[in-house]
Write a structure and sequence with these properties.
The complex is a heterodimer of chains A (91) and B (420). Chain A contains no helices and seven strands. Chain A is mostly beta strands. With 420 residues, chain B is of the alpha+beta class. Classes of the chains: A mainly beta (91), B alpha+beta (420).
Chain lengths: 91, 420
């Protein structure tokens, strides 16, 4: 499984204590279609580096039935995503 | 046995390069170095990764020399903001465990955890825990030396550079350090090493055994000090966090975009550097009365001279005048041309003290002129702070725009630190 790093827009809630909680992520596919996915659950939150480069606050999330690693790096969000290969090779 | 103190020295391995690798892990697979812009010829290697090191690439050598050794070397331009940000994050972790965290440059720090035992763990375990946390949370490796004094802790962190973890205890220190070369010791530089060589002192062990009185005679105060270091008797404290090191000198240097072959070239560079040094003095509210210049010619020979002046100053004009007089006195000049072209220049001021009042009298009472010059320079600072460095300059620096197109004060946010 090849992973890569992708910066994405995130809609987050700032709690009364100042904690940042991701609520939705915005995904733009190769066809430029934008989709909004709900973050169903934050399973785990801790400081960590990422295998795809960078470090920050890691939110391990359930998104659309999948476990994904979402990072808040300084003031930007990125997600570790799985490389699917070029569009034409996919069904 | 419980030690008198537990001090960690933590060193972020090849700092700049490692931070770049953390951000872009593929850089680990190729020879890579962090370096300046080659066109501008501030082109030197600031840090390199392990693969680049295998090619014999050294920190501080020019990009050109580095490419000769490794044509495929990948150069990353420095991102100082990131280096400051991430090294500060590393130190934030240290600071969770002790109120005594003393920075030594961006990438190194001493942490005194003697009093942390009650709150946390056994000190050695705690040190390991800190090292692992830095790796897990930031993806960065630090080498650690743990000992009962700062000098041995530093020595320990240098012994194994790959996330090493070296414990030098009061029981094993002779076995651990006595065989190391004497110049591995902090504050034993080239000059001291040469003197030690003449005495037949090769290792730290030799230094520790040597009669103190003779060392003191030959090397003075410093001789006694390094002998104490070698015996593990360093008692300097790790400073509290936020307690910054007292500034001993302020300097700026540059490697010019081309060789400097005329007096005009020198004059231009001296002005830019003097202005930066003076402006930094004023920012800190300091004045100094020893002015020095250092020159490196195009064969990389280094030469420096200094002069003490009567009245401590924070004026660029004053610094410039003294540096220029040192230059003219020491360097052969032929009709405005230099016999040996220079490549990099440093200007600095030391013997600093807090500025009290501006009115100080000297023999010829130049106070009025000096006040005028002061107002002028402060005005230039203000314009530069507000609108940018290039918005105000001395006309003389306009003789060659490209040569003087650098801002030492703004560009060099990171100044190397020295021990004292």
């Amino acid at each position: 499984m090849r992973l890569y790093k992708r910066y994405i827009p995130v809609i987050a809630l700032v709690s009364e204590k100042g904690d940042m909680i991701p609520m939705f992520i915005v995904w733009q596919d190769e066809r430029d279609d934008k989709k909004v996915y709900k973050v169903d659950k934050v399973l785990n939150k801790r400081r960590s580096f990422s295998r795809v480069g960078g470090c920050g606050i890691l939110y391990e999330c359930m998104i659309y039935g999948h476990k994904r690693k979402l990072y808040l790096e300084k003031d930007k969000w990125f997600i570790e995503c799985i490389y699917q290969g070029p569009l034409k090779d996919r069904a | 046995m419980k030690w008198s103190r537990y001090i960690i020295h933590a060193d972020l391995n090849h700092c700049y390069a490692q931070i770049e690798e953390m951000k872009e892990p593929w850089l680990r697979k190729i020879p890579m170095a962090v370096g300046g812009d080659e066109d501008k010829r501030h082109g030197i290697i600031l840090a390199k990764n392990d693969l680049a090191k295998k090619y014999g690439i050294k920190t501080a050598e020019t990009l050109r020399d580095a490419y000769k050794k490794c044509p495929d070397l990948y150069i990353v331009h420095p991102h100082y903001d990131d280096y400051i940000y991430y090294t500060e994050k590393v130190k934030d972790i240290y600071r969770e465990y002790s109120d005594k965290v003393e920075s030594f440059g961006l990438d190194e720090a001493w942490i005194d955890i003697s009093d942390s035992e009650l709150l946390f763990d056994d000190p050695i375990k705690l040190a390991k825990k800190i090292q692992i946390r830095v790796y897990e949370e930031l993806g960065l490796t630090v080498s650690m030396g743990i000992s009962y004094n700062k000098i041995f802790a530093k020595l320990g962190s240098d012994m194994d550079k790959h996330m090493g973890f070296t414990v030098i205890s009061p029981d094993n220190y002779q076995k651990m350090v006595y065989d190391l070369a004497a110049d591995d010791l902090l504050y034993v530089g080239q000059a001291t090493k040469a003197k030690l060589d003449r005495l037949g002192i090769k290792t730290i062990g030799d230094l520790a055994m040597y009669p103190l009185s003779i060392l003191r005679q030959i090397l003075g105060k410093n001789g006694a000090m390094i002998a104490m270091f070698a015996r593990g008797l360093d008692i300097t404290d790790v400073k509290f966090s936020g307690q910054s090191r007292e500034v001993k000198s302020i300097s700026n240097g540059v490697t010019a975009i081309r060789d400097l072959s005329s007096l005009d070239d020198i004059r231009m560079i001296f002005w830019v550097l003097s202005e930066s040094v003076a402006s930094r003095c004023r920012d800190k509210g300091l004045v100094g009365d020893v002015i020095y210049m250092g020159l490196r010619d195009n064969k990389l020979h280094y030469f420096s001279r200094q002069k003490k002046i009567d009245v401590a100053t924070d004026l660029a004009k004053m610094i410039f005048d003294v540096a220029m007089s040192l230059f003219i006195k020491n360097i052969p000049i032929n009709n405005g041309h230099l016999q040996v072209p220079f490549r990099s220049i440093t200007i600095g001021i030391s013997h600093l003290s807090k500025k009290t009042s501006y009115i100080e009298y000297d023999l010829f009472d130049m106070t009025k002129e000096r006040l005028k010059e002061y107002d002028l320079e402060v005005a230039i600072d203000k314009i530069r702070d507000k609108y940018g460095h290039d918005k105000a300059c001395r006309l003389v620096t306009k003789l060659d725009d490209e040569l003087t197109d650098f801002d030492p004060k703004g560009d060099h946010v990171i100044h190397p630190e020295s021990w004292f």
